[in-house]
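Quick one: structure for this chain?
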Amino acid sequence: MTSVDKEKCIGCGRCIEICEEVFSMQSDGKAFVKKESNNPCVKDAIASCPVEAIEE
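Got it. Here's what it folds into:
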């Protein structure tokens, strides 16, 4: 199950740019997983996170 650590997330939006199908932004400026998926873009989003806030 993919998750975003709210303590680490800086709200840069890279995960959303890479994998909008799975990630979205909350009103507090933090990313969250809106839909689980096996899409390969999830791994790309994990790799792109500058603060390593996304885990699978």
